Amino acid sequence: MGTSLRRAALTAATGAALAALALPPAAHAAADVTVNPSAVAPGGRFTLAAYCGATATSAEVSGTAFGGPAEITLNPFTDGGPGAFNAELTVPATTLPGSYQLSVTCSDGETGTGTLVVSPTGAPAGGGGSTSQGPSRALLGAGGSLLAASGVGAFLMLRRRYRGHHAA
Asked: In this model, does residue 20 exceed pLDDT 70?
């Protein structure tokens, strides 16, 4: 009987070890951190938002990465729902261009990072292209002319093809 008892104990220990290896260790969920705009010129302002778990009552970010204060407390952001926080921050004028990781810590233990890009000119301006003010008469005229020319060309090609097949 001693052998079967040892075998049972060994089987139980092996099963427990496999179960421990199969289950991942408990980890804190990651907070969602956004930076808007993502690219800012030195001296420019940006908004940092953190979406923690619903039980979080506060959130902090370390600003030392981009030359800001060591600890910045984020404000509750009621429009974002429970556990949402944000702050409008300024990049110091002396900050060098580059990418900076902003690490947020929530009161519920969640952590997250967002990326701030400091560029010499800030974010590229969007829009302002030829159609940003709506269609112009010149663009409409050019497009209409090209459409008419292609229609005439197609008509002539089909006419020639039609005559070639039915000649008597």
From this structure: no
